[in-house]
Design brief:
single chain; mainly alpha; Arc Repressor Mutant, subunit A; 5 helices; disordered N terminus
Length: 96
C-alpha cells in the first residue's frame, strides 16, 4: 500500500481540508455509529414494553392489532408505546 505525503502549509491548509471533506465519499462510518447508538438506546432508554412493541412492529413486521392480541392490550395502547419509543429515540438522535 502506497502512502502519499502532503505538506500542509498556511497557504494550502484550506484546500487540503476541503479536499479531505470532498473525498469522504460515503457516510458508512456515521451509519455504523448511529446503529451502535440505536442498539444501546433500545436496551437502555426504552421501557420493556416499548422495546417489545417496537421489535414486534419493525423487526417481526406484525400489525398493531396482532401485537395487541399477543400482549393482551388494546391496539391504541400498542400505538402509544410505539409513538413514545419513537419520540425518545428521535430526541436521542438529535444529540448524536
Amino acid at each position: 500500500m502506497q502512502l502519499d505525503c502532503i505538506n500542509i502549509t498556511q497557504e494550502n491548509s484550506n484546500l487540503v481540508s476541503y479536499s479531505v471533506y470532498q473525498s469522504a465519499g460515503t457516510n458508512k462510518t456515521d451509519l455504523m455509529k448511529m446503529r451502535q447508538l440505536l442498539n444501546i438506546a433500545l436496551k437502555t432508554e426504552l421501557t420493556d414494553r416499548q422495546r417489545e412493541c417496537l421489535e414486534m412492529y419493525y423487526y417481526k413486521n406484525l400489525k398493531m392489532v396482532e401485537i395487541a392480541s399477543l400482549l393482551s392490550v388494546s391496539p391504541s395502547t400498542v400505538t402509544r408505546h410505539i409513538k413514545a419509543a419513537q419520540r425518545k429515540l428521535k430526541n436521542l438522535a438529535k444529540y448524536c
